[in-house]
Amino acid sequence: SAELCLLPALATLLPPLPGLGGPGSAEVGLGGLPAELRTAVRALVGDLDALFSALGLREENFAVGALSRIVAAELAGYAPARNRRRTATNKASVVFVDRTLDLAGAVGHHGDNLAEKILSVLPKLPGHKTDVMVNMLELTALQTTDETCSIIAPGCLAQPNDPAAKALWESFMNLKQKEAVMEARRHLVEAASRENLPIKMSMGRVTPEQLSSYIKLFRNNLKALENHCGLLQLVLATVQTLKHPQTSKWDNFLAFERLLLQTIGESEMPSVLNQLLPMIKSYNERTKDDYTCEDFLVLLVYIYSVVGEIESGKELGAAEEEVKKALVKAICDEPEPSPLLQKIT
């Protein structure tokens, strides 16, 4: 979008965690990093220099976090960047922040944002870190209940050639979910009106079923489909996200995170872990509303991130052991472990 530029090639670049073979809090330079991380930092510096060249920027660097300081220092001393800063006309302040300093933000569910939900719940587009697969079956006359049916190529979110879709994507990123869904309906109604499709405008709450019924109007009109293909893909992504079981779980996560914040304020970490324990269920005991092993890993990252420094002691050690045991059992009982669980084990 106009305000956000992602660098997916560097999606795996994470600061090393202290104590796990990574550097401690003491300052390290680029030479103190593992070889793979050194290469990634140099790649990032080169990419940023190319980006700033395209924007004609003369930057001033600021850094928060150990790895960020290394990146900022490397960029400051990078020969092509020094040359660029001598001739560039636009000034900018650049702030680098270590991703590990905001893990609570990355795993929390506090955002009322449709773009975040779409990117979280729909399957990734193969080979992409920042785009998803949108099922396009609804735009065809093909009727199949087979989830793996791949006759129809998937749609995606990137629609650079469709002004309406680009405007709608901006709404998904910048508005609250309720307003963004209303924008999706408005764009659909306008597109249908332009194509003289028999659309009945309704007021009130927008439902996924209502959006689906509007989408179906385009189905038998190839010209209308072609003219508004980008917009239809974004609205289909909205419908599929709103109907997705993970979206209803989103609110459960949010409620539990709020409860945790209250509990952590009032009591110690062991009691928070003991609260969590009965909710860790094996595959055979789980219903669709229960948390999976991956959900628990996300919750644990959230808890330990918001708590910060913890006093270790006997009680905490015992509570952590119980949670570990329950999680290991749940992971071992998974009939088909996800790629993440396979990687962890």
Structure description:
This protein is mostly helical and 345 residues long. The protein folds into three domains: 72 residues, no CATH class; 130 residues, no CATH class; 99 residues, no CATH class. 54% of the residues lie in helices and 5% in strands. It is built from 15 helices and two strands. Strands 1-2 form a two-stranded parallel sheet. α1 packs across α2. The longest helix has 22 residues. It starts with 34 loop residues before the first helix and ends with a helix.
Order of helices and strands: HEHHEHHHHHHHHHHHH
Largest sheet: 2 strands, parallel
Distance from N terminus to C terminus (CA atoms, Å) equals 37 Å
β-sheet strand percentage: under 5%
Strands, count: 2
In spatial order, strands of the major sheet run 1-2
Rounded to the nearest angstrom, the radius of gyration is 24 Å
- Secondary structural class: mainly alpha
Taking all residues together, what is the mean pLDDT?
A: 88
Q: In terms of per-residue confidence, which ranges show pLDDT below 50 for 5 or more consecutive residues?
A: none
Question: What general form does the structure show?
Answer: globular
Please give the count of helices: 15
Number of domains: 3
Estimated helix fraction: 40-55%
